[in-house]
Amino acid sequence: MKDKFQAVVIGGGPGGYVCAIRLAQLGIKTACVESRGSLGGTCLNVGCIPSKSLLNLSEEFHKAQNLSNKGIEIGDIKLNLSKMMKNKDKAVTILTKGVEFLLKKNKVTYFKGTGSFKSKKKIVIKDDQGKETLIETDKTIIATGSLPVSLPGIEFDEKSIVSSTGALKLEKVPKKMVVVGGGYIGLEMGSVWSRLGSEVQVVEFLDHITPGMDKEISNEFMKILKKQGIKFNMQNKVESIKNNKSVTVVSTVDKDGNKNNFECDVVLISVGRKPNTKNLNLETIGIKTDEKKRIKTDKTFKTNIENIYAIGDVISGPMLAHKAEDEGIAVAENIAGQSGHVNYDTIPGVIYTTPEVASIGKTEEQLKEKNIKYKIGKFSFMANSRAKAIDDTEGFVKILADEKTDKVLGAHLIGPHAGELIAEIGVAMEFGASSEDIARTCHAHPTFSEAVKEAALSVDKRAIHS
User: HSE on the CB side for 107, CA within 13 Å?
Assistant: First the structure.
């Protein structure tokens, strides 16, 4: 027996490492087990961080190509993809090493290897050399995240048929790329390669992109992406993907039964993710899962086994890093005898394209479905001084408030820095604020945040600048 711990977290992603740190802060002897070889999970290694790096760098490249239109004349702009990828990898390395330092600083024992249950209180850790270590624990938190889903019968080779992981590591810009799935990840990665010179086609089974998002925002988003050169093929079901050496052919059937073939160099399959629970040996201890193989938990994140908990992508709810982080803190506080809680009504979602898209709370469609009467306030960035000054005016802010109480029920943004602006509305909603509360809060001028204030004013039909 290597050691005994009061708590062991299996998984070192945003949910896992945050949970481990919070447990240690609360005086609980804690270990964190991670199989990847570096901490930070999908988010830091092959998700949020590298994709945001490439989104930013590809946007800088695009801006540089168009600087002469704004009176800044420079020489020929050339893409050095290898250097760009190294810059991305550097950001990942710095951040993952930073997380390792944080575990050490908080006296969390870090095990590199795959953790699985031998019994309810014993964890076997197998490292990449096949060596096994057995540890004992009073409590275990499962935080092993998720994996990309492919289509039936189609496997990722991460070269010509890629998941989001492969899309972050392409060695050259594909002449043609097909993105299967019009969700967050597919549209982010599609926009990266589109800006770097690829001809991008999106194939989507539904009649709209970004399922679950406010439809008005979703429609505006697609219009903007079309203007940027991305082509959309809606209500197309993928029947097969064939890799013929130099050309990959995606075959689909549309709503009218017509067959369509899309030739490309690379196809990115972005149709969702599944819980990563395969190697945990859950059957041995009898942990219950639902029809989607997500681990069932109660409100305190406890599974049907008394001393075992689960958080993040392995349980129900949006597969978002910040959702997992909040759950990690909440479960740690529950284990310590405190009252950890996550408000699922105020978890923001952000798409980091240009422009950014952000959402929090209820959509119009959800309010209509529940027969909740609401008011709408909208304000266009076209009328925002800061956006106008820097020629970044696409999009708008939309606030939904209860018709009687004026309480903010949701907000949906598309435009510059939407991912940052959504935080103000998140704080307002946490405190049960009305749209008038936001409207009467002084916002600095000129800032993008004034668009939020004007949208709040617009709820009561008293916007000043529109």
Answer: 8
- Annotated active-site positions, please? 445
Tell me the CATH number for domain 161-271. 3.50.50.60
What dotted CATH number matches 3-147+274-342? 3.50.50.60
The domain limits of the chain are 3-147+274-342, 161-271, 346-459
**What burial class does residue 464 get, using C-beta atoms within 10 Å of its C-beta: 0-12 exposed, 13-18 middle, 19+ buried?**
exposed
CATH class of 346-459: alpha beta
Single pTM value for the model:
0.96
Task: Going residue by residue through the chain, which has 466 residues, state the pLDDT in tens, using 9 for 90 and above.
Answer: 458 999 999 999 999 999 999 999 999 999 999 999 999 999 999 999 999 999 999 999 999 999 998 999 999 999 999 999 999 999 999 999 999 999 999 999 999 999 999 999 999 999 999 999 999 999 999 999 999 999 999 999 999 999 999 999 999 999 999 999 999 999 999 999 999 999 999 999 999 999 999 999 999 999 999 999 999 999 999 999 999 878 899 999 999 999 999 999 999 999 999 999 999 999 999 999 999 999 999 999 999 999 999 999 999 999 999 999 999 999 999 999 999 999 999 999 999 999 999 999 999 999 999 999 999 999 999 999 999 999 999 999 999 999 999 999 999 999 999 999 999 999 999 999 999 999 999 999 999 999 999 999 999 999 999 9
**3-147+274-342 against 161-271: fold identical:** yes
